[in-house]
Amino acid sequence: MELLDAALIALAGTAAGAINALAGGGSLVTFPTLLALGYPPVLANVTNTVAAFPGYVGGAWGYRAELSGQRRRILVLGVLTAVGALIGSALLLLGSEGTFRAVVPWLILGSTVLMAVQPAISKALARRAAGPERLTWAGVGELGVGIYGGYFNAGLGFMMLGVMGMTLNDGIQRLNALKSVMSAVASLVSLVFFVIFAEVAWPAAIIMAISGLVGGWIGARVGRRIPPAPLRWSIVAFGLILFLMMLTGVLG
């Protein structure tokens, strides 16, 4: 790896870590960076997924107090999320590079839309009246989200939070904590699967993982001074540009 490429990957990882700490959606920075540097789409996706794992673990650890009393949820949803991630990871490797190239622009568009509506989802969850726990439906939803996460990591947390908010009766912070654990579970399953069966660009993955942790720390430190709305809409605009570039073949 050339020094300039390493510097760009480190910069993207730092930016992604900060964005994840502030608003989420950091993969919309790291994935296209790898594509722009010449990594094939599937290799870029695999490497991006592997690099995201430490950040998910850090997020889950930060929410450990809110996980109290959620053991049954973690066990049930964790198993189904893991199964889904395994299926999604297998589908990625069993499919062709051409299929992934055709699908990924629409996955990026979906992630971008989720990024745009995430504040509305959070507000809806905060206003949600007390209701029955629908853990079975949450499990079905998590199975589907796990498949998505194993195939393409970007936007995973937004999808998980949406499913949990519609099926579980709890506050936004406790659901965020549960989402962080499930994201770590899905990422771990994909990581192990990819290490065994796929090619990983380890230098890039290690640089992104370390710089992502640094970026997360920076984001947490400066987050109170950055208005979230302009940041979010900047990421949404970037995601839409990325969608068009992928769709037209300009990138990837």
Automatic annotation (TrEMBL):
<feature type="transmembrane region" description="Helical">
    <location>
        <begin position="42"/>
        <end position="62"/>
    </location>
</feature>
<feature type="transmembrane region" description="Helical">
    <location>
        <begin position="188"/>
        <end position="219"/>
    </location>
</feature>
<feature type="transmembrane region" description="Helical">
    <location>
        <begin position="231"/>
        <end position="251"/>
    </location>
</feature>
<dbReference type="Pfam" id="PF01925">
    <property type="entry name" value="TauE"/>
</dbReference>
<dbReference type="GO" id="GO:0005886">
    <property type="term" value="C:plasma membrane"/>
</dbReference>
<keyword id="KW-0813">Transport</keyword>
<feature type="transmembrane region" description="Helical">
    <location>
        <begin position="147"/>
        <end position="168"/>
    </location>
</feature>
<keyword id="KW-1003">Cell membrane</keyword>
<keyword id="KW-1133">Transmembrane helix</keyword>
<feature type="transmembrane region" description="Helical">
    <location>
        <begin position="74"/>
        <end position="94"/>
    </location>
</feature>
<dbReference type="InterPro" id="IPR002781">
    <property type="entry name" value="TM_pro_TauE-like"/>
</dbReference>
<keyword id="KW-0812">Transmembrane</keyword>
<dbReference type="InterPro" id="IPR052017">
    <property type="entry name" value="TSUP"/>
</dbReference>
<protein>
    <recommendedName>
        <fullName>Probable membrane transporter protein</fullName>
    </recommendedName>
</protein>
<keyword id="KW-0472">Membrane</keyword>
<comment type="similarity">
    <text>Belongs to the 4-toluene sulfonate uptake permease (TSUP) (TC 2.A.102) family.</text>
</comment>
